[in-house]
Amino acid sequence: MTTLTSPRGPRDGTEGEGTKAGPPTPGRTLRDRLPARLRRLSLPYLLLLPALLLELLVHLVPMAVGIFMSFKELTQFFVRDWGAAPWTGLDNYATAVDFDAPVGEALLHSFAVTVVFTVLSVGLCWLIGTAAAVFMQENFRGRGLLRAVFLTPYALPVYAAVITWSFMFQRDTGLINHVLHDQLGLTDTRPFWLIGDNSFVALLTVSVWKGWPFAFLIVMAGLQNIPKELYEAAAIDGAGIWQQLRRITLPSLRPVNQVLVLVLFLWTFNDFNTPYVLFGKAAPEAADLISIHIYQSSFVTWNFGAGSAMSVLLLLFLLLVTAGYLLVTSRGRRSADV
Amino acid sequence: MAAPRSFLWTRRIFLTLLTGFVLLPVYVMISSSLKPLEDVSGSFHWLPSGFTVRPYLDIWTTVPLADYFMNSLIVAGAATVCSVVIAVFAAYAVSRYTFRGKRVFTVTVLSTQMFPGILFLLPLFLIYVNLGNATGIALFGSRAGLILTYLTFSLPFSIWMLIGYFDSVPRELDEAALVDGCGPLGALFRVVVPAAIPGIVAVAVYAFMTAWGEVLFASVLTNDTTRTLAVGLQGYATQNDVYWNQVMAASLVVSVPVVAGFLLLQRYLVAGLTAGAVK
Lengths: 338, 279
What we know:
B: mainly alpha; Sugar ABC transporter permease (chain A); ABC_transporter_permease (chain A); MetI-like_sf (chain A); cell membrane (chain A)
């Protein structure tokens, strides 16, 4: 088996030992083996080719184009022929980060809103998802049904679910104000939910409602991997259920949580669908998430150059955060192993 | 071991509240879709004053919902099939072979997941428009353009999940098939794919849901004839009025296929996540 392993293979280091067996070829000369070997070496690349081409076409090339465009003065006049747009160097970036001028100030504000929103949303999603998964770890009557119910927000198409929330948040015809004002009398007037400061609360509510089932799903899957013997041993040692939760369940979930939190963070930070369906093309200031903000800057005011510069800045930020996060968590994991 | 009362009560209260929170919009959707227009134009009421199925008949004529439905079905269906097939090949290569550039590939593919969609939207929009002008290949506004775009959205996640799933299929199985004279593709389709069906189903469900629910690209890259449900549903809001009962009826109609499919296949999805994502 090892005779057929590519000499380059082990250097890659990800898979360790030779990963496949071909038909055994004892006693052949190098010349005989070469074509088969060539074929074998190129096979993985052939298998990857479609995926590679698509990634190239829809992600990597557009990304390069996006970076290129961010150095150009790309306004609506140049949409038909963006190559002809004048080169402006770093002007778009300068405009985006000039926090004293309106464009930069608005971007900074939107960024701050997005950070606060993301932290709150991810935190709540994680908390609710973990609690639900832990509470449903053991079997009880109706558990299967409840699990199906809990996964519904995840399965519902975003626009159908968010449009329903937007109906519930309507000032005059919505359920929220009916309950708060008409039934409970908690508010003197009917507050607006989709404009003004309350819009942040509305957006957060919808985002958590939509996002927590994913955390639930992942944590549930993670819980299945914890060996039952751990709990049994702990129970024999006299640990109560809360202690088991703190000493066994939560530490065992750590690797799962590290991936989960990162994925939730990226999805929430980049979320466009929820604010777009909830508020339309222009979100209220208090809920002006960055992706909507960039969309607004690009497609509504038709300044693609500035929009691209903002996208690139956003990407750099996400790259930095992700790299930092991976660095910290992998170090934590290593020291935990010792 | 019997759980203490404090645990049972916390659990009961928490799960009840959570069920209420989850089902509230579902209740609003269903109940409002059965109300006459007067009922949804005034203050909200938990119980409808009248009961009517009129909204379900009207949704098809207020906007061309059937056309949108068809567009969504074609786009999401095609994107799902292509994305699953391509992901199977790619994941097989990564799971079973050692080759140069493997890490670069997996890291690149995975990291595209973290990029904001808005970053690709502007350039893709310009590329599609300019490509159309230069070569006559109409990607902008066409279903093909949207299919192409969507199929890459689910691809990174699908590849990632399938790698994990394929890794959990014992290597000896396809090695035996190779020894028995199968080619690598034969081993893939006769041994690895059948053993990994739950993972493949999970990936397909995910890909379909992603495409069915996407809003951003659908709103920019489609035109009047290729509009999907995500964009079309906003047509129930006219200048003066929003036909909320029809909006809710239409939302329910477009949700039923995905929710039903998802709930039917959720066991596979959870199994797929267990093998793939949680590693």
